[in-house]
Amino acid sequence: MYAELLRLLVDDYEVGGVSVEVLAGYENRSFGEAIGLRLLAAVHGLVLSGSVPELAAFYPSVGGSWDPILGWEAFEQVLQSRAGEIRSLLTQPPQTNEVGRAAALYGGLLQLVEAVPLPVRLFEIGASGGLNLRADQYRYVAAGTSYGRADSPVVFESAWSGSVPAVELRIAERVGCDIAPVDPLSPEGALTLTSYVWPDMAQRLERLRGALAIAQQVPADVRPEDAVSFVQGLELSQGHVTVVWHSIMWQYLRRADRAAVAQRLEELGAQANESSPLAHLSLEPHRVMTHDRDSDGWEYRVDLQTWPGGKRRVLGRAEPHGQELVWGSSDPLSVS
């Protein structure tokens, strides 16, 4: 649905249609700022709020059925009639709190805790609404084995391929940061997070709605803070493994900020020991050389670095939304 909508938006823009006015001033923004996603989310939010029923008839997320001809006509009318409101929403940074990426976090934590059997202090950069800080509250099924919370409303069938240890995971602390955090406990926050899910992806919507229910039960602290300040304020804790985690957000940081985060992690790593280790766990895109016409030149890796020692390891690979997760590495995991 969104692929068709974006193609229609490009066509409209090139002929000087209504999208030109809506997107005025955004022509030279970088790919990483995801202006297309912001625009689609702004309109989806209007649909979810019930304020544009003429367009809702074409959105599966509210019971509609997409039609590229009639749906575009209704979409175009909303762009015209709600241009000012949509433009104001374009200023907001993307808030894709994709619950599917929790599988990479949870599986990575299990592999870490197998080697370091300590309670986890979990800190997330770019946490949005903090839904993935509750990764242990979801249920994961793989190769006939079930992991996580047995009665969870969020269930990942065929969560991953490859071996993951079934060890006890204890999360002692859940803290995140975001430059514009969303409160998943509020109706406005829930609507914002839902608006960034593509309306014809039923499984993603179902997972998100289940995660929003869990957020009502399991507290997490998400602070309005930038990544550098957040990491600068972290300290290690005796008897715990401190884990810094992020997923598909590195692109939104300036190069200098990435370097500052990495430097702070190295500083903390130099202080780490067996009773207060540190780990950096991430799911982020990496450029790869490929001759495959179906490949976009990126792979999405689950990477883990551990201290003391600073050992790095690729734990697995996944799709951008965390699906088709495959674990596997020939290197033994070690924090020494």
- Which consecutive residue ranges, at least 5 long each, have pLDDT under 50? 330-336
Strand order of the largest sheet: 5-12-11-10-9-8-1-6-7
- Class by SSE composition: alpha/beta
**Separation, N- and C-terminal Cα atoms:** 49 Å
Secondary structure: helix percent: 25-40%
What gross morphology would you assign? globular
Q: How many DSSP E strands?
A: 12
Summarize the helix and strand pattern as letters.
HHHHHHHEEEEEEHHEHEHEEEE
The radius of gyration is 21 Å
Residue-averaged pLDDT, rounded? 93
- The total count of helices amounts to 11
Portion in beta strands: 15-25%
Largest sheet properties: 9 strands, mixed
Account of the protein in words:
This protein has 336 residues and is α/β, with parallel strands linked by helices. Helices cover 35% and strands 20% of the residues. It contains eleven helices and twelve strands.
What key phrases describe this protein's structure?
12 strands, nine-stranded mixed β-sheet, alpha/beta, 11 helices, globular, three-stranded mixed β-sheet
Question: Topology, please?
Answer:
Elements lengths: L1 H13 L3 H5 L12 H15 L3 H4 L13 H12 L1 H7 L12 H14 L4 E6 L13 E4 L2 E4 L6 E2 L3 E2 L9 E8 L8 H9 L6 H14 L5 E4 L2 H6 L8 E7 L7 H17 L6 E10 L10 E10 L3 E8 L6 E3 L9
Parallel strand pairs: 1-6, 1-8, 2-4, 5-12, 6-7, 8-9
Antiparallel strand pairs: 2-3, 9-10, 10-11, 11-12
Helix pairs in contact: 3-8
